[in-house]
Amino acid sequence: MSVTTGAEHGPTAGESWTGLAACAGARSGRGSDPDAMFVQGAAQREARLVCFACEVRMECLVEAFETGMEFGVWGGLTERERRAMVRQAAGSTVPWRQRLLYDSELRTRFEQERLRAADGTARFPEKRLGAARRVLP
Ligand code: SF4
């Protein structure tokens, strides 16, 4: 599994979804610091709020899983949350994109957080993903 640093996060040439990333540039209110999503502890709470309104959240999360991103907030999920999902998927041959698209709890959470971001009521922590949610085997 590859290890990345903040320097690799964010839009890069040739990756279409990254051009819509809420964490990149002025739309996030964070300037263009790609390290903004590579924070620890309480700072991850604020970082995650940027993801709630991101148009490419699912694409970002798929990228994180498919490329083995170990650090940082990706798709609004912390390293800890992603590690739990990796453990849950151990032994599965279902591609991450397919797995995530069929994860109804994840999609519901994304929609709820998007709505909270839209009306200004988004707060961390939002509900953590349940361990027993229905996912592909
Ligand atoms: S989901 Fe979050 S980390 Fe991913 S591109 Fe959007 S704002 Fe950035």
Automatic annotation (TrEMBL):
Query: Which keywords are on file for this protein?
Result: 4Fe-4S, Cytoplasm, Disulfide bond, DNA-binding, Iron, Iron-sulfur, Metal-binding, Transcription, Transcription regulation
Detail which positions bind [4Fe-4S] cluster.
23, 51, 54, 60
Q: 4Fe-4S Wbl-type domain spans which residues?
A: 22-84
Q: Which cofactor does it need?
A: [4Fe-4S] cluster
CC per GO annotation = cytoplasm
Cofactor: binding comment: Binds 1 [4Fe-4S] cluster per subunit. Following nitrosylation of the [4Fe-4S] cluster binds 1 [4Fe-8(NO)] cluster per subunit.
Keyword Protein biosynthesis among record annotations: no
The similarity annotation says: Belongs to the WhiB family.
Could you tell me what this protein is called?
A: Transcriptional regulator WhiB
What is the native source organism of this protein? Answer: Salana multivorans
What is the gene called?
A: whiB
